[in-house]
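notes to self, project folder thing:

trying the whole complex as one job this time. last attempt i did each chain seperately and stitching them together was a nightmare. three parts in total, labels are on each line so i dont mix them up again. if this works i'll redo the older ones the same way
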Amino acid sequence: MNIIDLLLTPLSYSFMVRGLTAAVLTGIVCAVIGVYVVVRGMAFFGDALAHSILPGVAVGYLLTDGAREPLFWWGTGTAVVVSLVIGAVSKGARIKQDTAIGIIFAGMFALGIAIISTVKSYTVDLTHFLFGDVLGVSGNQLITIAIFSVLILILVIAFYKEFLVLTFDPTLAATLRIPTRVFEYLLLVLIALTVAVSFQTVGVALMVAMLITPAAAAYLLTKRLPIMMILAAIIASASGVIGLYLSYYVNVASGPAIVLVATGFFVIAWGYSNLKKRKAILESASA
Amino acid sequence: MLGLEFEGNLYMKGIWKGTFRFVLLFVVVLLSSACGGPSEGYQSSDKDKIQVVVTTTFIADVVTNIAGDKVDVSALLTAGQNPHSYHPAPMDMVAVTEADLILANGFGLEDFLEDLLSGTDTTAEVIVVSEGIKPLLMEGHIEGDDNSLEDSMEAVMGQDPHVWFDPNNILIWSENITNALAEEDPENEVSYQANFDTYQGQLLELDVWIREQIEKIPENQRELVTDHSTLGYFAQEYGLVQIGAVIPALTTEAETSGMELAKLIDTISEHQTKAIFIGVDFDPNLAQRVAEETGVELVPLYFGSLSDGEPAGTYFSFMRYNVSAIVEALQ
Amino acid sequence: MKNLINSFRKQSFSRRYAPHVKNAPLLAMQDITVHYETGLVLDRISFDLTPGAAVAVVGPNGAGKTTLFKVIAGVLDPGEGIVQVSGHEPGGHTCIAYVPQRSTVDWTFPATVADVVMMGRINKMGPFLWPQKEDWSVVQRSLDLVNLAAYAKRQISELSGGQQQRMFIARALAQEAELMLLDEPFNGLDIPAQEKILEILATLKQQNVTVMISMHDLRLAAEQFDRVMLLNKELLGFGVPEEVFTRDLLLKAYQGHLHFVEGEFDTLAVGDDCCDGEHHEYH
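result (full assembly):
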């Protein structure tokens, strides 16, 4: 089989095409939002949020007797609520924010596992919740993912400047009369929506990787924020596609395959930026 | 991170209230779903009767046919329960401790059994009812740790445990069970033997009936596509071929890959398969995707256990239901 | 819930540009009082500022200088009292620039100097709008004014302390602010850097921008500014240095952490350990 065949064969199956589309879409969204997560140091929050949607999804699963489509809305609802709660708790701060997030994270995740454990016959879905089930994405689900992805990206573009100022210098934002609280919570909600949208592709346990790894790799390669977002999106899409192809031919689970490819990109970026640094040091030393 | 010094305590209160209600809802749902929890069907123990604890509903059904009301029988795995996600409840452990006889399927189905036995220190006699059945081997593997059980129950990687799809295997079960019962309770041996004879007749009748039904399927359609490869014994005995499965492994915990799914889709179009047989206890999502892509119908069958009541509450109704569904789909 | 709606209403999306009342003082403070959990921070501050004034605000740590600036900038709501900028509450104005102490910003943030200066202009653009040509030329001019034009494309992580400060001033200029509040801009700067800032302040004065600067160096304040303000929770003095920096008032302000060095007129030293025990820095 030549290389063209290798590339084209999976595409003749609609489940692969759907899976690839879902992986690319969610990769782009995760990467763009992930840039904010990385720059603001919110990786733990992102991980906590991802794990916290498990009880919502589990309850939805129970109540709809195993139907897949409503799970997206249950996940979205839970994610939005949890993100706002964590946002509010972070401001109150009698305990360190780190601790507060950790408590919510662990509690919600445990609740989710507990609920799922009461359903004796569908345990296979716990794996899908945790690690993704991109091959099982239906046409309808793909449409939902697409709509929400576009919505998230539009909001990021529309309020790019506001988020930028808010992230870099909140006091300036206040001075410029930008409604900081609104945008703070809006950003949290956007992260929540991202988590809900990507849940099916990579699952809860690996979501944080899709949020931060492409963005972190991009951060090593550029210092301009818009370029960082574009680079991250490219890396994430490439990871999604390559990961899925890998999982097809090598017979590994798809979610972990995607994450491993993204991590590989990060390692390459890290190596490259290290080399650049060394070169620069050497040059300035000999100058 | 979100460090602005705005005071907003009333706003926070609002959030807390909402979350509190949400959490309350969770807890309520959790509790109500937990009520479907651990094994049901424990009869009040009558010290005169022997206590028989079995693993699957199939075994329980056979025991009931052989022993009638001379024994108290209860099954650890309830209808629809996945043996790989089974965690014994305290009541189960009590039942195992007080059991006189424990019957298990074997062939790797019950990976929880070893721990359960050692955890309860039971003095019961443990019998593998599938002893004597020639096991089918499968390439798929069974999840779980290395099991090296007591000599009578070895879990070997790759043995297909779904022996109950062939009434002839049930016949072997019945022999083993009758012998075990007779040994444990010699007083009632005669009665057990008589019931066995009747039951044997019924099983043979079933076997004949199945062959008649299979005849109705055109020769080139005697192929099976399932969601998990569970019909090995049935196919072997009645001349059908398992040509593919959505998840080509023995257990529900296995994952599938894109390539395997692609192969399955190709197989289905080549063979012009008419139906994919899915277990009512399993998640149909992947099977639905395959069905959409290939245009075949999904036919639900009972796989892992009898149903609670109709339509597959006894072994006979279970087999009749499944065979009828298979024949109807493939005709 | 009502509070939630109110707080959102207060932070509405519309960029209200409060009209400037003619002939109103640029800044009018009346009985401004602020309480924190830890106690009283500002006690009945009242003063007026005319456009074009340059005021040095001095006082020990914890005197409330930062808090005062935040109230003026409209970032902090005072508990009591009235603040008016050109006749209106600071809330509607976007002509007030507040440059906080440098440590509050993340210097590893991926942005160039020009990017940061452009941030000062964003409330001139709404959602979906991007910087236009004229925005970039304003940024260029601001950078020229502070002598950072060469650094426009550099990462902010490459800047020295003095350059960072000048960048913030450039941003305030890009904001086309009429009132600038600089919070301890001279901290940690060497003499040449300080001089550069003082030059810029002179230019600002020419452009009729009103400036309030907080600092610790009393000598610098007395030498470079015609108006000074002495603050320690209450307004101890506001006027020309000779009148404000009297022995009595200074004693009151620094409460014993003061060593007077007799010599030239108004030369004195303040102990470095002033008020360390009750360090109230509310950022």
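what i see at first glance: Strands of chain B lie at 50-54, 71-75, 101-104, 125-128, 223-228, 241-247, 275-279, 297-301.
need to look closer tmrw
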